[in-house]
Amino acid sequence: MSDATALPQRDLFDLPEGVVYLDGNSLGPLPRGTAERLSRAVGAEWGAQLVRGWNDAGWIDLPDRVAARIAPLIGAEPGTVAVGDSTSVNLFKVLAAAMALNPERRVILSDAGNFPTDLYIADGICRFRGEGWRVEAKPSEEVEAAIDESVAVLMLTQVDYRTGRRRDMRAVTEKAHAAGAVVIWDLAHSAGAFPVELAACGADFAIGCGYKFLNGGPGAPAFLYVAPRHAATVEPVLSGWMGHAAPFAFDPGYRPGEGVERMKVGTPPILSMTALEDALRLFEGRDLAALETRAQDLCDHFIAAVEARCPGLVLATPRDRAVRGSHVSFRHPEGYAVMQALIAQGVIGDFRAPDILRFGITPLYIGEADLDRAAEVLGEILDSGSWDRPEFHARAKVT
Amino acid sequence: MSDATALPQRDLFDLPEGVVYLDGNSLGPLPRGTAERLSRAVGAEWGAQLVRGWNDAGWIDLPDRVAARIAPLIGAEPGTVAVGDSTSVNLFKVLAAAMALNPERRVILSDAGNFPTDLYIADGICRFRGEGWRVEAKPSEEVEAAIDESVAVLMLTQVDYRTGRRRDMRAVTEKAHAAGAVVIWDLAHSAGAFPVELAACGADFAIGCGYKFLNGGPGAPAFLYVAPRHAATVEPVLSGWMGHAAPFAFDPGYRPGEGVERMKVGTPPILSMTALEDALRLFEGRDLAALETRAQDLCDHFIAAVEARCPGLVLATPRDRAVRGSHVSFRHPEGYAVMQALIAQGVIGDFRAPDILRFGITPLYIGEADLDRAAEVLGEILDSGSWDRPEFHARAKVT
């Protein structure tokens, strides 16, 4: 499975015929076998074992099993990852932990172009914590220069959700540490796309998403990372029973579990988490560096194909493969309608306000022929102006 | 479906042959039809619609659809319930909201016998918030007398998870309000068991669980309630994008959604939530008052049967049906081993430290014959001492 030359392996997934799926960075497709696994979890576990499933089907250890599968994908030491809750909730947990490590400072520094929920959550925690805590969100290109000794926490997403620009995790982390700041990395568009090196880069905390490149299913549980040097001293703000040292002792007092275990909170959604566990099979033994190389080749290929076929589009993604993630974006003032027209023809990407046409590219199920077709259909739509129809302008709830 | 005389309807569920299931208050059984519904969500939605499922399969509205099904079960006004996250995380959200309503006070009053995670979460939020906030956990029978003008938030679980004692929601809420306290009710062992009257009792906030009497599956998403008088002013501490007024506008600044919508946080676990939505079918058109009457008849029946057959056991649950929930508990010093012996014979209840044998009773799938069998098997186990075997003393991870 680690041979990149054997990619794409579209038959690893239950992908509909005729669809070119370039939105796996929003929702990964259904891995082949996951439907059957989930059916077993419902019938043979929940149905037949009933409450005994917590022990007999190993539900209680499911979050740890998933964590152990995610850790190598993000360069995390064993026992440093906790799985559960949403990405937003996990960010809240690690923000609280990070803030406590720098109690004399008051600033959470971030990127004004960060994924909005990250900024919202940081704002919310500052309002609740009070005492002058605040978020400073700088324009993307000014963030690194703004790292100074006022900064308690630097909170960044490694890959920009619109442009695909990838930050240098090692250099930025080093710079932040030199200024005494604690660093949180959001790996939403990183995990499963290329090798992330949290430990090697000295990251303090990280969070990430189960439903994008990890293919865990809609709303799959998220994950968080706590560096070993913090794990034993972090005081969980969401101090729920699943993070207690002995959840089933029903002690009236809270005692944090060992290491990252303490970052678990409530009862995890077993069905959704089972799908994620199963989806992670696809990464077993996979060479992520080879996957990344192949992904960047495909990104280059797609940029060239689109620029040749659609000269009016403006590339929003860096041309330099060293500083981009695993999606390619173009700008078009009517991007929303253009994307709906594209989707109507079976080429599925997504739109991000205000003008971004976004195409997630993963070598697991995408090859050059898919990208050529996408570029051709996009070209036809732009040439013909067929995107300019009322049904393509009508905004859906979710874009 | 509302005719209580037609109960039990064991065929509403995929229950294993020969099992007497008295642990639906820990994990409700699999409703018939839910396996098929979930299979469709996996194959026909995630697999075939891919990311389009957010609009085409209505995933984006799924939490609201589930909330609309739960609201009538708990006496909540339309548009006052939000579904998602775990019970513990929801408690954190409503605690933060409640604390902000009483900014001059510093005490969260609770019951020392409350379900531990409630106390842990309250402790955690006080530690994080600082400024003198603290939890005062009183012995169960002293809580009501301790309500005074120092209390900012009264946080109680309506039905005690061990004894099944049910508090008078109306009287306690009135007393708290008279002292100027804000009230949070945990409905973990209430929702789906009997009619809860949140609005009529004037409750401020509530939380509850999807996987007990609501039968939503292992780790099903939880819910919260915000009284309409607070909904428009509450400032969410977990201010995630799903609670934003326009999540897909990707605004850099947070604007809370309308009313209780703002209490949503991150992307919900769609597969687990789909199971919960489907399970709630079983409550459509059901007369909860009739269900409660039948449940209390069954509780009386079980108490009588066990006391006749097992005179050595001590009843931990009130004999007065007006002050109990929908489970019956007995004390035995070797309760853990006794329960394992019982489970080995297909009578499934659970054990709660230190000495509680707990039996959840729901008329949906339990009748007198089941309870007679349970009492008989329990009697045989106690008479023979067959519980005193090494395999029954060996503690599993989850009890």
UniProtKB/TrEMBL annotation, chains A, B:
<feature type="binding site">
    <location>
        <position position="267"/>
    </location>
    <ligand>
        <name>pyridoxal 5'-phosphate</name>
    </ligand>
</feature>
<dbReference type="InterPro" id="IPR015422">
    <property type="entry name" value="PyrdxlP-dep_Trfase_small"/>
</dbReference>
<feature type="binding site">
    <location>
        <position position="241"/>
    </location>
    <ligand>
        <name>pyridoxal 5'-phosphate</name>
    </ligand>
</feature>
<comment type="pathway">
    <text>Cofactor biosynthesis; NAD(+) biosynthesis; quinolinate from L-kynurenine: step 2/3.</text>
</comment>
<keyword id="KW-0662">Pyridine nucleotide biosynthesis</keyword>
<dbReference type="InterPro" id="IPR010111">
    <property type="entry name" value="Kynureninase"/>
</dbReference>
<dbReference type="GO" id="GO:0005737">
    <property type="term" value="C:cytoplasm"/>
</dbReference>
<dbReference type="GO" id="GO:0019805">
    <property type="term" value="P:quinolinate biosynthetic process"/>
</dbReference>
<dbReference type="GO" id="GO:0030429">
    <property type="term" value="F:kynureninase activity"/>
</dbReference>
<comment type="similarity">
    <text>Belongs to the kynureninase family.</text>
</comment>
<feature type="binding site">
    <location>
        <position position="186"/>
    </location>
    <ligand>
        <name>pyridoxal 5'-phosphate</name>
    </ligand>
</feature>
<dbReference type="GO" id="GO:0030170">
    <property type="term" value="F:pyridoxal phosphate binding"/>
</dbReference>
<comment type="subunit">
    <text>Homodimer.</text>
</comment>
<keyword id="KW-0378">Hydrolase</keyword>
<feature type="binding site">
    <location>
        <position position="211"/>
    </location>
    <ligand>
        <name>pyridoxal 5'-phosphate</name>
    </ligand>
</feature>
<dbReference type="GO" id="GO:0097053">
    <property type="term" value="P:L-kynurenine catabolic process"/>
</dbReference>
<feature type="binding site">
    <location>
        <position position="157"/>
    </location>
    <ligand>
        <name>pyridoxal 5'-phosphate</name>
    </ligand>
</feature>
<dbReference type="GO" id="GO:0019441">
    <property type="term" value="P:L-tryptophan catabolic process to kynurenine"/>
</dbReference>
<dbReference type="GO" id="GO:0043420">
    <property type="term" value="P:anthranilate metabolic process"/>
</dbReference>
<feature type="binding site">
    <location>
        <begin position="115"/>
        <end position="118"/>
    </location>
    <ligand>
        <name>pyridoxal 5'-phosphate</name>
    </ligand>
</feature>
<feature type="binding site">
    <location>
        <position position="87"/>
    </location>
    <ligand>
        <name>pyridoxal 5'-phosphate</name>
    </ligand>
</feature>
<dbReference type="GO" id="GO:0009435">
    <property type="term" value="P:NAD+ biosynthetic process"/>
</dbReference>
<feature type="binding site">
    <location>
        <position position="189"/>
    </location>
    <ligand>
        <name>pyridoxal 5'-phosphate</name>
    </ligand>
</feature>
<comment type="function">
    <text>Catalyzes the cleavage of L-kynurenine (L-Kyn) and L-3-hydroxykynurenine (L-3OHKyn) into anthranilic acid (AA) and 3-hydroxyanthranilic acid (3-OHAA), respectively.</text>
</comment>
<protein>
    <recommendedName>
        <fullName>Kynureninase</fullName>
        <ecNumber>3.7.1.3</ecNumber>
    </recommendedName>
</protein>
<keyword id="KW-0663">Pyridoxal phosphate</keyword>
<feature type="modified residue" description="N6-(pyridoxal phosphate)lysine">
    <location>
        <position position="212"/>
    </location>
</feature>
<dbReference type="Pfam" id="PF22580">
    <property type="entry name" value="KYNU_C"/>
</dbReference>
<comment type="pathway">
    <text>Amino-acid degradation; L-kynurenine degradation; L-alanine and anthranilate from L-kynurenine: step 1/1.</text>
</comment>
<feature type="binding site">
    <location>
        <position position="88"/>
    </location>
    <ligand>
        <name>pyridoxal 5'-phosphate</name>
    </ligand>
</feature>
<dbReference type="InterPro" id="IPR015421">
    <property type="entry name" value="PyrdxlP-dep_Trfase_major"/>
</dbReference>
<dbReference type="InterPro" id="IPR015424">
    <property type="entry name" value="PyrdxlP-dep_Trfase"/>
</dbReference>
